[in-house]
Design a protein that fits this description.
This protein is globular. The relative contact order is 0.20. The longest helix is centred in the last third of the chain and has 33 residues, at 335-367. 45% of the residues lie in helices and 10% in strands. It has 16 helices and ten strands. Strands 3-10-9-8-7-6-5-4 form an eight-stranded parallel sheet. Strands 1-2 form a two-stranded antiparallel ribbon. By secondary structure, the protein is of the alpha/beta class. The structure holds flavin mononucleotide. Flavin mononucleotide (FMN) is lined by residues 42-43, 56, 94-97, 124-126, 146, 174, 256, 278, 280-281, 311-314, 334-335, 338.
Length: 384
């Protein structure tokens, strides 16, 4: 028996107080206290009316679990393995860019927390620390790299090569952000951290990107940031390009941002090894379907053997288990760990991870299941 959620719980009771927030809402509230409105709203906000952001949460709220009693769950296993990458819990850390706006340690703080807990990190293309710095912070701990496929193939491929040579074991291609969504909270403050050189580390350190500049970023940050933003929109991208990328790398390839069954099938035809059902936390298409609802459609389309992950709205252990029961092989944790970073740096992220592991483990035990991977749709109430 590995991880015991009850130990985390007991430690809090015995200490007489919790050093960290417990609920996702409390983490968010604490982050709102420590961050300036610009950075906080960049993390917390979404596209348009934020209807999809709310829908992601509502889809979890709507589903109800069907626990079994006296099922003998003293021994449990929370671990999952996805495309050769193991996690001690059925979640990974989602790619979140620009984390220097949450805490000076940025993605390196997150990387250390991921390594300390063994939960894999998906490093963002828009991170404030480089592929290599994060690899160094993680040692042998599992990590994937998320690619924003910019409109310059040579730059995109250079990022992939760097990830390959820095020990990243999976490539996540995000297809829902070929240009930035309409985000009222950021627009109202004209807040775009990239313009200040935040979240540009992969590009500023990239030899191909640098070769495109007249002056290095160290001499003219604004010009380099503007050049990076100019390479970002890539609305001409199609599934054929993905098939090309498939031929360029042996890393397991996942497509992130799929919301329809037919797109999941196209991703598979183009050679993807897996899909991540996601609406980018409601930051791209306002009014898009909730990620949990799309998961059901995608799993139905691809069948039981395909690798399907999801993110969007994971806030507690019950959410993790509902997503697994509805067909996810694992989920990605997003905003909550960014709030953990804002509140407590590496330790804050570790606390968020450990709490979610404990909550998931305890809920699994009380559900009457021994393995997170045993759950299927029979564990969800039909009426929900
Ligand atoms: C501040 C912020 C930055 C993000 N940056 C990226 C990114 O660089 N690449 C990416 O694929 N997804 C990015 N995402 C989306 C997350 O990977 C994930 O899909 C989303 O956060 C899930 O929703 P949730 O956090 O509400 O659960 C970002 C999300 C947030 C909140």
């Amino acid at each position: 028996m590995g991880f015991e959620g009850g130990q985390v719980q007991n430690a809090i009771y015995v200490a007489g107080e919790s050093p960290w927030p417990i609920s996702a809402a409390e983490w968010e509230a604490r982050a709102a206290e420590v961050l300036e409105p610009g950075p906080f709203d960049y993390i917390a906000g979404g596209a348009g009316s934020e209807a999809t952001m709310r829908a992601n949460l509502e889809a979890f709220e709507r589903r109800r679990l069907r626990p079994r009693m006296l099922a003998g769950t003293a021994e449990r296993d929370l671990a999952v393995e996805v495309l050769g990458t193991r996690s001690p819990a059925p979640f990974l850390l989602a790619p979140i860019g620009v984390l220097s706006i949450a805490h000076p340690d940025g993605e390196v703080g997150v990387a250390r927390a991921a390594a300390a807990t063994g939960v894999p990190l998906v490093l963002s293309s828009a991170a404030s620390h480089t592929i290599e710095e994060v690899a160094e912070a993680m040692g042998d701990a599992p990590r994937w790299f998320q690619l924003y496929w910019v409109n310059d193939r040579e730059i995109a491929l250079s990022l992939v090569r760097r990830a390959e040579s820095s020990g990243y074991r999976g490539l996540v291609v995000t297809v829902d952000t070929l240009t930035l969504g309409w985000r009222p909270r950021d627009l109202a403050k004209a807040y775009l951290p990239f313009l200040a050189g935040e979240g540009c580390a992969q590009f500023f350190s990239d030899p191909v990107f640098r070769s495109r500049l007249e002056q290095p970023p160290e001499e003219d940050v604004l010009a380099a940031a503007v050049a990076m933003l100019a390479t970002f929109p890539n609305l001409a991208l199609t599934w054929e390009d993905l098939a090309w990328l498939r031929g360029q790398t042996e890393l397991p390839l996942l497509v992130k941002g799929v919301l329809r069954g037919e797109d999941a099938a196209l991703a598979r035809e183009a050679g993807a090894d897996g899909v991540i059902v996601s609406n980018h936390g409601g930051r791209q298409v306002d009014g898009a379907v909730a990620a949990l609802d799309a998961l059901v459609e995608v799993r139905d389309e691809l069948g039981p053997d395909a690798v399907v992950l999801m993110d969007g709205g994971i806030r507690g252990g019950a959410d993790v288990l509902k997503a697994l029961a509805l067909g996810a092989d694992a989920v990605l944790l997003g905003r909550p760990y960014a709030y953990g970073l804002a509140v407590g740096g590496q330790e804050g992220v570790e606390a968020v991870i450990r709490h979610l592991m404990a909550d998931t483990d305890i809920t699994l035990a009380l559900m009457g299941a021994r393995r997170a991977t045993d759950l299927d749709r029979t564990w969800i109430a039909a009426s929900s």
